[in-house]
Amino acid sequence: MRDLLLDSFYDALNKEIQKLNRIQTLGLCCLSMSRMWVPFAQWASSNNVSHIIDVGEKCSNMLWDQVMAEQIYNTQYDLFLGYIREIKAAVNELYDQDISIDDSPARIYIDSLSSAVCFFDPKMLLKGVKYDCIDCAETIVGGISEYTYDEIFSSSGNISEDKLAILVKQSPIWQEECDRIKSDLALVASSSQNKEAMQNQRHTYMNINIFS
User: Fold this and answer.
1) Coil, strand, or helix at residue 120?
2) Chain segment 176-206, per-residue pLDDT in tens
3) Which of 15, 33, 62, 208 is deepest in the core (most CB within 10 A)?
């Protein structure tokens, strides 16, 4: 049922992303990542790695600047990759102290940064690695929903698949995230004419903790 429910979710998401151009797709990803911001920043602060909050914000700003400029390919790949490596280095140091990000929603933001490299100039990306923009977008936009599902899945015990699916669909976080994705899809479809609305939505998302 886990596969069936998430497959259905991602199939529907894929169909919607297919309708978007590259900049609209990036805009959708940026809005999703903005909802991941508070959990990431809170986790970093509570684990005494507050410096990566600033680094993470620089990554976000680079992607948003690309959306606002309607720049097809971001050319600052080396800078972006350096920021990601700085964040991951801090996370790895915490692993050495038996502090793991794996079970935290903060992980979604870091994973999404890694996926976002698909929006950079292909000539600058790692050779031999195939980056599919739609696949990366699905990973980013679906990150919160999949995390929510996994949390319910891991804490539900031995219940039937049907009951598990009902629990997930009844989860306020799951429902609200699905609603936000639908709203974001409508917004990015006309993002060229609604850049101010895009930025306003970004700031709204960056000031809420969707998991609380």
Assistant:
1) strand
2) 999 999 999 999 999 889 999 999 999 999 9
3) 33
Q: Give the pLDDT band (50/70/90) at residue 4.
A: confident
CA dist 23 → 75, 97, 119, 184 (Å): 14, 40, 9, 13
DSSP assignment of 16-64: HHTTS-HHHHHHHHHHHHHHTHHHHHHHHHHTT-THHHHHHHHHHHHHH
d(CA 27, CA 139): 14
- For residue 185, give the 3-state DSSP assignment: helix
Q: Which pair of structure tokens corresponds to residue 155?
A: 């804490």
Q: What is the pLDDT of residue 47?
A: 96
Rounded to whole angstroms, the Cα distance separating 45 from 41 reads: 6
CB 109 within 8 A of CB 37: yes
**Tokens standing for 79?**
């800078």
pLDDT digits (tens, 9 = 90+) for 15-57: 999 999 999 999 999 999 999 999 999 999 999 999 999 999 9
Rg for the chain, CA atoms, rounded = 17
Structure tokens at 42: 């809170």
In degrees and rounded to multiples of 5, residue 120 shows phi and psi of -95, 170
